[in-house]
């Protein structure tokens, strides 16, 4: 469970202004745009604000509760990135390593140049995919569901859309992606992609452990993230929030197709390092505090502080932001003034996005409109959980930033 641990005024928040958060987001539920939500705001490691509202399942008429389970989708990516950097700290890999050193199927990748899905023309990759390309989403890989480039269509034609073809595991999925052309030459542009799933496979190969085993033994167990898992057993199924999408005519939240909604209730063959986890606010709070404390929590250190600082700097070539680095398709962040580190978006300048934040703030979000950020300057973390796909439906994330930073008055 997670609840406020102190008077928010002691942490520099105006309690009346913090209350605006709940009033604002309650309107999304009251008019039917969201089923329900959970929000947590902390400062200096203490919970200043924690609230729930609405229903975790409209049809069953069950409320959002503090221990509700949420599909966090791409908020899995920072955890996978931490796993990679743990191996890096052990000297098991270099960020400049060619991924083909570990996954030889990526040795001779080709790049889409012109043509159609039916008849694409490709050229050899001028630069091999390296581990830092995967961590920064500059590898040239893509997602089939983006539907913004011919390469995306080639993924969909091969069965890689929202997930992978039935029967594939992480190893066979990587082999399939390696046979498809890249969207762009490695290192030349930023494109959201299956790169973090490939990193998950890298963790498996180097560690000799399945990704779920590595997570449990090296990250989730030590951080006491006891409710974070790859699927939900029957005993906990009632705690899982239902998954919704906007009705195209009314904008109201309606249930997603059963196959997508119930996917989290089955043990997956494909362990998606890019989007496979289910978690709770209390568990992900522990992950954000581990990050805020630069790699340590409750006496357990998984990363050195310099490694966390290094991960959360902008790694885009030339120090550019996403807007200047030829972004393609969708992202779980704005582009202007935002760079990208090793697994996180990083604020370079809050002005282009027209939303207050601190230079150096970092975070990410998930496909069902979940999000988190860590602000090392103000020592603030914030998390939003709901279950509406896609995450681009409503401006929930910038609005939460507006409300959190306007409540900070010290």
Automatic annotation (TrEMBL):
It holds the Pfam family Beta-lactamase. Gene3D superfamilies: DD-peptidase/beta-lactamase superfamily. The keyword Phosphoprotein does not apply. GO terms for molecular function: hydrolase activity. Keywords: Hydrolase. Signal peptide: none annotated. This is Serine hydrolase domain-containing protein. It comes from Plantactinospora siamensis.
């Amino acid at each position: 469970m997670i609840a406020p641990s102190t008077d928010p005024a002691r942490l520099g928040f105006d309690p009346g202004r913090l209350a605006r958060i709940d009033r604002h987001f309650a309107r999304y539920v009251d008019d039917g745009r969201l089923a329900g939500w959970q929000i947590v705001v902390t400062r200096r490691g203490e919970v200043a604000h924690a609230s729930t509202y609405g229903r975790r399942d409209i049809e069953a008429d069950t409320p959002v509760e503090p221990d509700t389970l949420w599909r966090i989708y791409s908020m899995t990516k920072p955890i996978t990135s931490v796993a990679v950097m743990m191996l890096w700290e052990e000297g098991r890999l270099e960020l400049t390593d060619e991924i083909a050193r570990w996954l030889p199927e990526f040795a001779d990748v080709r790049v889409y140049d012109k043509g159609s899905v039916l008849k694409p023309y490709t050229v050899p990759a001028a630069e091999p995919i390296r581990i830092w390309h995967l961590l920064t989403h500059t590898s040239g890989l893509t997602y089939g569901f983006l539907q913004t480039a011919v390469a995306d269509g080639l993924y969909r034609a091969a069965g890689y859309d929202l997930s992978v073809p039935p029967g594939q595991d992480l190893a066979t999925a990587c082999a399939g992606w390696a046979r498809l052309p890249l969207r762009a030459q490695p290192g030349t542009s930023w494109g959201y992609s299956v790169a973090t799933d490939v990193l998950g496979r890298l963790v498996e190969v180097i560690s000799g452990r399945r990704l779920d085993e590595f997570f449990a033994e090296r990250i989730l167990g030590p951080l006491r993230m006891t409710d974070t898992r790859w699927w939900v057993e029957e005993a906990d199924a009632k705690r899982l929030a239902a998954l919704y999408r906007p009705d195209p005519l009314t904008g109201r939240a309606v249930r997603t197709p059963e196959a997508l909604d119930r996917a989290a209730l089955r043990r997956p063959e494909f362990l998606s390092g890019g989007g496979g986890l289910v978690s709770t606010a209390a568990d992900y709070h522990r992950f954000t505090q581990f990050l805020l404390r630069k790699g340590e929590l409750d006496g357990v250190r998984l990363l050195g502080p310099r490694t966390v600082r290094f991960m959360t700097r902008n790694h885009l070539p030339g120090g550019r932001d996403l807007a200047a680095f030829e972004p393609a398709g969708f992202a779980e962040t704005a582009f202007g003034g935002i760079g990208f580190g090793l697994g996180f978006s990083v604020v370079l300048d809050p002005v282009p996005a027209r939303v207050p934040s601190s230079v150096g703030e970092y975070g990410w979000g998930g496909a069902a409109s979940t999000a988190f950020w860590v602000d090392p300057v103000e020592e603030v973390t914030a998390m939003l959980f709901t279950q509406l796909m896609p995450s681009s439906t409503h401006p929930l994330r910038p609005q939460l930033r507006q409300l959190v930073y306007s409540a900070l008055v010290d």
